[in-house]
């Protein structure tokens, strides 16, 4: 497939209804929040996890689309596998071995050539700075986490059953966001794509994964999560035709009314100032 010759910037809008989009383990798994503003946060790590999972689900058997950071993976064993390849073994110089191992990892692991990775934790396969970068997502409005008491009509051990004296109900807590619309920003560098081998075919896979990343990730804890907008700015040059922040400022999100809390995507209006779009930048609304 052909190399990427364009710089891309994008804005991702997704929402959650009656779920916890990204629990904070340091706060009892409460939804992440900016303590100063009260706005919700979803980490880039959380979003990339869902993208990785979707690629693994849909392309897992395709050559070059394995996932490096995945459940139960032992990373140093995967790096060792690179050193077992003939193209790496034949290199006599240590530096060239590292480069050959790095190139092999990029070719075989989609997330390495997309997001980058540190692969010097065992045998050294170098470090990769990925062409695809995503920011934390931040909610448009303040979120209020709801706390719910939940019961389970069973216990786990005989000892617990004795304590309950015949009443096998156990109690727990659950946290949800009634509704939140989140906005994340992303960047794709053609310069770094050339270094990792991230090409047009990978780009198509990435867009598809972003659009569908919540469709196979449903759970009771996460409630209803959906991608609502994927707005892409495609530059007609590798270095770009305008600063990213200037493009992001063209997108405005407003509430349709303020006399009641938002509970649906239709409670917002997303507008784009296309008149002010810089020359050499194409606007693509993928969702």
Can you give a write-up of this model?
It is a single chain. The protein is of the alpha+beta class. It has one domain. It has helices at 44-59, 75-83, 86-89, 94-108, 110-115, 158-164, 190-196, 200-212, 244-248, and strands at residues 8-19, 23-24, 30-31, 39-42, 116-118, 127-129, 132-134, 137-142, 146-152, 170-188, 224-235, 251-255, 268-272, 281-285. Helix 1 (44-59) packs across helix 8. It starts with 7 loop residues before the first strand and ends with a strand.
Instruction: Specify the structural class.
Output: alpha+beta
Helix content: 25-40%
The main sheet comes to: 8 strands, antiparallel
Radius of gyration: 22 Å
Number of distinct beta strands: 14
- From the N-terminal CA to the C-terminal CA, the straight-line distance is 25 Å
H/I helix tally: 9
Compute the number of structural domains.
1
**Rounded mean pLDDT score:** 93
Order of helices and strands: EEEEHHHHHEEEEEHEHHEHEEE
Taken from the alpha-carbon principal axes, the silhouette is: flat
User: Poorly predicted ranges (pLDDT <50, ≥5 residues)?
Assistant: none
- Strand percentage lies at 25-35%
């Amino acid at each position: 497939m052909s190399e990427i010759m364009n710089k891309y910037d994008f804005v991702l809008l997704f929402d959650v209804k009656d779920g916890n989009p990204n629990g904070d383990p340091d706060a009892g798994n409460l939804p992440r929040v900016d303590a100063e503003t009260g706005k919700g946060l979803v980490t880039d790590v959380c979003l990339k996890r869902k993208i990785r999972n979707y690629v693994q689900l849909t392309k897992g058997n395709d050559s070059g689309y394995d996932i490096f950071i995945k459940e139960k993976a032992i990373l140093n064993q995967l790096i060792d596998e690179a050193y077992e390849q003939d193209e790496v073994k034949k290199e006599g110089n240590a530096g060239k071995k590292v480069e050959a191992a790095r190139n092999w990892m990029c070719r075989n692991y989609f997330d390495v050539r997309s997001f980058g990775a540190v692969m010097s934790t065992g045998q050294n396969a170098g470090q990769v700075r990925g062409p695809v970068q995503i920011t934390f997502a931040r909610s448009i409005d303040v979120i209020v986490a709801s706390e719910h008491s939940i019961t389970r009509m069973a216990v786990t051990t005989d000892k617990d059953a004795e304590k309950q004296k015949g009443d096998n109900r156990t109690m727990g807590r659950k946290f949800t966001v009634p509704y939140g619309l989140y906005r994340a920003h992303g960047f794709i560098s053609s310069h770094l794509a050339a270094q990792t081998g991230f090409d047009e075919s990978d780009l198509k896979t990435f867009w598809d994964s972003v659009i569908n990343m919540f469709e196979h990730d449903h759970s009771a804890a996460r409630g209803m999560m959906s991608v609502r907008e994927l707005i892409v700015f495609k530059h007609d040059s590798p270095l770009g035709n305008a600063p990213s922040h200037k493009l992001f400022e063209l997108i405005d999100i407003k509430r349709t009314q303020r006399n009641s809390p938002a509970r649906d995507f239709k409670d917002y209006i997303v507008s784009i100032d296309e008149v002010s779009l810089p020359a050499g930048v194409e606007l693509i609304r993928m969702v």
